Amino acid sequence: MMDKKDQYILAIETSCDETAVAIVKNGKELLSNAVASQIESHKRFGGVVPEIASRHHIEQITIVLEQALNEAKVTMEEIDAIAVTEGPGLVGALLIGVNAAKALAFAHQKPLVGVHHIAGHIYANRLEKEFSFPLLALVVSGGHTELILMKEHGDFQVIGETRDDAAGEAYDKVAKALGLPYPGGPHIDRLASEGKAAIDFPRAWLEEGSYDFSFSGLKTAVINTLHNASQKGETLKKEDIAASFQESVIDVLVTKTYRAAQEYQVNQLIVAGGVAANKGLRAKLQEQFAETDIEVLIPPLSLCTDNAAMIAAAGSIAFEQGHRAGLDLNANPSLSLERYARRSRK
Ligand code: KG4
Ligand code: ZN
């Protein structure tokens, strides 16, 4: 017999180019985490094509759903709530997940919970380790670069964010300029470990005390350096460009994160999003925080990039806090984290 107190959340994530369904028990225990990636289909275009993403999600969603239920050995009757990414993301892609979640909730008479994608990236870490507040989260992905302060579950205060390109976006654009395949982050990461940071690229510190970020100047500096070299007939080592670019990104990310962690006297630092997979960033953060009492949590690679387990983990807390969406739930492509937080704490 199933223990009545156990909570089972089924979650769906389709905000970008992964169709994902996962089942999580009691907010922390991963029972299944099915992901169908579309990267191969988008590669030849050098980025995600929204129409192609939507079409793939439609084709994959029921297959991935079945896989997640089979792997978890859980039936729909046992599920307590359906969580779904409602935003931010590509509207056409989000809609597939939102509609699939609504259909499931309606057909099986289950509560529906809308989840913010970034809350999901943060909560991926709770599948590994219980949170200790106050905590600071550094969210670095293809669409986001944010420093978020959390004083309790479901409470998100954005203390810094990018003013232009996201960190992952800068990685992907620089990779493109270097002729590397999409997504470029992992390729730059690998090349960086083989090169020397010999080129002094700029660091955008912004105004005194600001926790905001800016990466477009750095991206332009890399592209200009490549153009100047090719006009002079020189060839720069890709490894050195990658290493110099990566050092600039990591220097700014780690310095600002460290300063914010000290100022807000946090117990934990959480690193989340696709760029959290970066080996250079992980190593530098571990090194910088080693001397402090602050615990650094970085999820395993499979939980760094988009997945539905993180949506289930965040959805579990939102569900416990009484957050419910109606069958009129819509995709919300530019949903703000703070608006979402206020709503889920009601
Ligand atoms: O979180 P994510 O899977 O999707 C978004 O919500 O954006 O992040 C994808 C981003 C891409 O820009 C990709 O290049 C970057 O994460 N990324 C990396 C690494 N692995 C993935 N960036 C730097 N180093 C990596 N190892
Ligand atoms: Zn993401």
Can you tell me about this structure?
This protein is an alpha/beta fold and 346 residues long. It folds into two domains: 8-123 and 304-345, 2-Layer Sandwich (Nucleotidyltransferase, domain 5), CATH 3.30.420; 133-298, ATPase, nucleotide binding domain (Nucleotidyltransferase, domain 5), CATH 3.30.420.40. Helix content is 43%, strand content 17%. The protein has helices at 39-43, 50-72, 91-108, 117-123, 167-177, 185-192, 216-231, 238-263, 279-289, 301-304, 309-320, 337-344, and strands at residues 8-13, 18-25, 29-37, 81-87, 112-116, 135-140, 145-150, 157-161, 268-272, 295-297. The strands form two sheets. A five-stranded mixed β-sheet has the order 3-2-1-4-5, with helices on both faces. It has a five-stranded mixed β-sheet with strand order 8-7-6-9-10, with helices on both faces. Helix 4 (117-123) packs across helix 11 and helix 5 (167-177) runs antiparallel to helix 8. The longest helix has 26 residues, at 238-263. The radius of gyration is 20 Å and the shape is globular. The mean pLDDT is 94. It binds 5'-O-[(R)-(carboxyoxy)(hydroxy)phosphoryl]adenosine (KG4) and zinc ion (ZN).
Q: How are the elements arranged and paired?
A:
Blueprint: E1 8-13, E2 18-25, E3 29-37, H1 39-43, H2 50-72, E4 81-87, H3 91-108, E5 112-116, H4 117-123, E6 135-140, E7 145-150, E8 157-161, H5 167-177, H6 185-192, H7 216-231, H8 238-263, E9 268-272, H9 279-289, E10 295-297, H10 301-304, H11 309-320, H12 337-344
Helix pairs in contact: 2-3, 4-11, 5-7, 5-8, 6-8, 8-9
